Each structure stands twice: as structure tokens, then as C-alpha cells.
Amino acid sequence: MDYIIIEVPDMNDSVSRIVLNGKQYLIRFTYNDTGGYWSFGLSDALGEPIVMGVKVVPRFPLNVFYYGVAELPMGVFGVMTELDKVGRADFREGRASFIFAPVQ
Fold this sequence. Notes:
It is a single chain. By secondary structure, this protein is mainly β. It has no helices and seven strands. The protein has a four-stranded antiparallel β-sheet, with no helix packed on it. Strands 1-7-6 form a three-stranded antiparallel β-sheet, with no helix packed on it. The chain is globular, with a radius of gyration of 13 Å. The protein starts with a strand and ends with a strand.
């Protein structure tokens, strides 16, 4: 399986530009300190939201409930890790990787 590792910045809230399947997007990562979890959102290149506030859980296709949203890139977002829960420092310390696996 081919996949792209998407860097999660060491910030509680960040927006980064990424290119997936040849198209530019904005990806937002937010850490909820009270709840102890990460979420992500994806917008088009102009900042128009596609999906927002998707809770990041390990080893599960994060966009499974958004099947059919035409604006999403063809593929699966997920987190590769052995952990049961992804904490604030787990991306930074290499215990978890946020990935996108494009449809072949």
C-alpha cells in the first residue's frame, strides 16, 4: 500500500498547505486539551471547508463517514500507530503518523 505521511505541526492549532492527487488543499490540525484528542479538517485551496472537526482515532479510516463527498481527494486518511489513543506529543515523538493513502 502506498501512502503519504502528512506532517502534524507541534502546535495546538495549525493550518498547512498540502497537495493530494495533484490538487492543493489546506489541512487543519487541532488538539483539544480538555478532551485529550486531535481533530483535523480539510478545505479547498481557497479555504472553503470540505470536512471539519474529524476526530483522529488510530487505525480507522477517518473519512469513512464522508464517502461520496465529491470535493474530498480519492483515498483514505488515517493514523498509523500501535497506540489506542493519540496524545498531544505522539506525532512529534514518532509514536503516530498521520497518513493519506490514495486510491490506486
